[in-house]
Structures are given as C-alpha cells and as structure tokens.
Design brief:
This protein is about 70% helix and about 5% strand. By secondary structure, the protein is mainly alpha-helical. It has a two-stranded antiparallel sheet. β2 and β3 form a beta hairpin. α3 runs antiparallel to α10, α7 crosses α9 and α17 crosses α18. The chain is globular, with a radius of gyration of 25 Å. The protein starts with a helix and ends with a helix. The N terminus is likely disordered.
C-alpha cells in the first residue's frame, strides 16, 4: 500500500488545481490576504526616527527582539504598524486554554461544541486586545527611553503613547482578522500562514548576506554548501518526525438493534509524536532571551556580575544551550498536558463502545493513554530540543548570517505540510464530486 506521502505526491499537481475553481479562488484569496499582511509590515508607526531605530536595533541585536523580528517578517526592526504581529493572539489563545483546565465554566463551554467554541473564541479576541494594549504601551515607553542622545521618538509624551497603543493594537487586530478570514475563506491555518510568510520574507535578505560573505572571503564557500546540505537533511528529518504517530488499536464490539447488527469494526487512535508543535521552542527562547534583551538596553550601567551573567546567557554559549534544552523539554510536557486530556479521550471511547484489547474502559484506558502519551512525548521533546539546538550551535560557532534557527525551520516545514494537506483534501473532495456527477448522469441516461 502506498504511503500517505506517496499518495499526496501522486494526486497533487497543478493541472488538478486549475480544474478546481473553488480551490483556485481560495488560493488566490489566501495569497491576496498575505500580501496585505506583508504590506502592513512596511508602513512605519508615526513619530519614529527610522535612522535612530535602525542604529538601536544593531546595538541590541541577537536577543529576544531578533526572534520577534523574525516572526513578524522584519516589522519590529522597522517598528511598523504590524510590529506586535500575531503574538498577542497566540499568547491569549494559550492562556485561555490554560484557563479551561482551571475554571469549570470554560471547560463546560469547551464541551458544548460549536456554540461553546464561538464563545471561547470571543473571549480570546477580548483578551488579545488587552494584551496588545499592554504590550503596545510598554513598547512606547521603551522607545522613549532608547537611543541615548539620538532619540528614536521624535516627540515623546502622552500623545505619542496613545497613538502607539492605538496603532499597534489596531495592527494586531487587523492581522488577527486577516488570519481568521484565511482560515474560513482561504487554504490553511491563517495565523500560521501569517507567521510563515514573515519568516519566508526574510529568506532573500539572509541569503544575500550569506553569499556576500562567501564573495568577500569572510566565509568558506564549502562551509555554505555544507550548511545547505545540512539544512535539507534537517528539513527531511522534521517532515519524518512530524508525520510520526503512535497508533493505539481500538475495537468496537458488535451490538444488535432489532434485526440489524452494528459494530464489530476496528480502528486506531493516532497519537502524534510531537503534540505540542512549535510552542515549546518559542516560549523557551522568549523566556531565556528576555533578561539579556532588557540588559542590552542599559548595558553600560550594569554591575560587573550582571554583565557576566548576560555574557553566559548570550546565544551560542554552553549555559544558554543547556537552559534552552531544559526549557524546551519542560514546555513540551507542560503544553501536551494542556492540549490533550487522556481522561476525556477515554470517556469518549467508552461512550461509543471503543475499547483497547485487554484493557478495561474508563479509568484503566485513561491510564493506558497517559502512559503511552508520556513515553512518546519524551521522544517528541528530545526531537524538538535536537532540531532547535543543532542549528543554534552550528550557526553561531561558524558565524554564518543565514541563521534562521530551528524554530523558524520548524514553523516553515509544519505550515507547509499542513497547507499542502488541506489542498490535497480539497482536491479529493473535488474528485468525489466529479464521480457523483458522472454517476448521476449515467443514471439519468438509463
């Protein structure tokens, strides 16, 4: 039997896409929405001196600002209207997910289906506005105190702060709306595609810097070729691990209703190897780089011991790599425990008559799922740590400009796989519709 990847490659072609009118319109809508999102990252926020901002970004490079700048497609470096990006929405979504495990009211809404999901989404939007306003006000205060003699803010004060809050919060909400429109009317997950487009938009600049290093002799061309092969191998490894699953065999006993017999089938409960996705690396790097980023704003006035700590926590240092790996492992288990509930899954299986062979339904099944999930999460967490640490170590050891990092590569590969899979599902649906139309025409002729 052909694998899922082989079936995807066999059915995915541009000829079939050209015949699917609805899919074609969805793709064009997605591309148009992403272009609008990219244009917003080039519109500067009012009241900012671009030259002073560029100088300050060079001095504070390599910290948390670099991560946010990568995820926003360079909008932070330009302090554009989309400088906050979609991160407040992602943070709000994660916090709401945490709250559903704490507050019974939210947990009850989660179980209500589509109606409850709409209410939770509305709460997430309100919380996104609050987070964006707080972050925007913090950015405005920070910009007023940055730059030394060359002030980044042309006219600091109350009106600049209010304008910054309105501009940045409005930009985040517009990005959130664009992402929701892509999800409902386009192809793929809109929020993920916005982050994906921001990362991919920096490819030409980073590639140009790398080739310039090779031309000037700052970097050995053979080293660049080696990194290109290494990156391709890493992408293949990520694809393999993201598709990896642990399938739990489930059987459904036969039951008789009247003269008919139902059930007697078997299926699988798939458990992804990496349930937490790219959230652990993003959280780990943000927390770890926060002290060094804040310290870089006032590096000259820091005590000697604090400067030493900042040096040891800088990217590429052994202490940074160790803590980075530890935080990735912690958040992988923590976030998996939030997004996957073994007791709820076991209860749903029991409701529909599904059982694991040799295991009692209910509590025993939940324990079996939890035990299996814990074991595969260990492998998934180690995989995330490996993918994120190896590029960090190699790129900073050899001082190569094309240093996207494991988190960016993970996001690009995961979003690409998800989008292509959704395109494939649309193509399969179109094929079924075509077969149904042909069968109806044959029936009408007869």
């Amino acid at each position: 039997m052909a694998s899922a990847a082989e079936q995807l490659a066999a059915n995915f072609n541009f000829g079939s896409i050209s015949k699917a009118k609805e899919l074609r319109s969805r793709i064009f809508f997605t591309l148009g929405a992403l272009i609008v999102a990219r244009l917003g990252s080039y519109i500067p926020m009012p009241g900012i001196d671009p030259a002073a901002l560029a100088l300050q970004m060079q001095q504070t490079g390599g910290g948390m600002l670099d991560i946010f700048n990568t995820l926003s497609g360079g909008a932070v470096g330009r302090m554009a209207v989309f400088a906050l990006g979609i991160m407040p929405y992602i943070s709000a979504s994660i916090i709401i997910q945490l709250m559903t495990t704490v507050f019974p009211e939210l947990e009850a809404l989660k179980k209500e289906g589509e109606a409850g999901r709409k209410i939770i989404n509305q709460y997430t939007r309100y919380f996104t506005v609050a987070l964006a306003m707080i972050q925007a006000y913090g950015i405005a205060l920070g910009l007023e105190h940055l730059g030394g003699q060359s002030h980044i803010v042309i006219h600091p004060g109350f009106f600049f702060r209010i304008g910054a809050v309105i501009t940045l919060t409005g930009g985040t909400m517009l990005l959130m709306w664009i992402g929701e429109q892509i999800t409902s009317r386009g192809v793929g997950n809109g929020i993920s595609l916005i982050i994906f487009s921001g990362i991919v938009a920096r490819f030409p600049t980073l590639l140009g810097q790398t080739l310039e290093q090779a031309r000037t002799g700052a970097t050995n061309p053979l080293l660049i070729i080696f990194f290109a092969v290494f990156t391709a191998a890493l992408v293949g490894f990520i694809v393999f691990m993201e598709r990896a699953q642990r399938r739990l065999f489930v059987t459904y006993p036969k039951r008789q209703v009247g003269n008919k017999v139902y059930g007697g089938d078997s299926s699988h409960l798939p458990l992804k190897l990496n349930v937490s996705g790219v959230i652990p690396p993003i959280f780990a790097s943000s927390i770890l780089l926060l002290p060094t980023t804040v310290a870089s704003f006032n590096a000259q006035n820091l005590p000697e011991w604090l400067q030493l700590v900042v040096t040891y926590l800088s990217r590429g240092q052994p202490l940074y790599l160790f803590l980075y790996a530890a935080l990735i492992l912690f958040f992988a288990f923590f976030y998996t425990s939030i997004v996957f509930n073994p007791e709820e899954t076991a209860e749903n299986l029991k409701k529909y008559g599904g059982v694991f062979p040799g295991i009692r339904p209910g509590k025993k099944s939940a324990q079996f799922i939890d035990y299996t999930l814990t074991r595969i999460t260990v492998i998934g967490a180690l995989y995330l740590a490996f993918v994120c640490l190896i590029p960090e170590f190699m790129f900073y050891k050899y001082n190569l400009s094309f240093s996207l990092g494991g988190t960016s590569i993970l996001i690009v590969v995961s979003v690409t796989m998800d989008t292509v899979a959704q395109i494939q599902s649309h193509l399969v649906a179109q094929q079924y519709e075509g077969l149904l139309k042909k069968s109806k025409l044959r029936g009408a002729r007869r």
